[in-house]
Amino acid sequence: MSGLRVNGQTLGVDAAADTPLLWVLRADLGMTGTKFGCGMALCGACTVHLDGQPVRSCVTPLSSVGSGEVTTIEGLEGREAQALRQAWLELDVVQCGYCQGGQIMSASALLRQNPDPDDAAIEAAMSGNLCRCGTYPRIRAAIRLAAQRLRG
Question: Is 51 strand, coil or helix?
Answer without folding.
Answer: coil
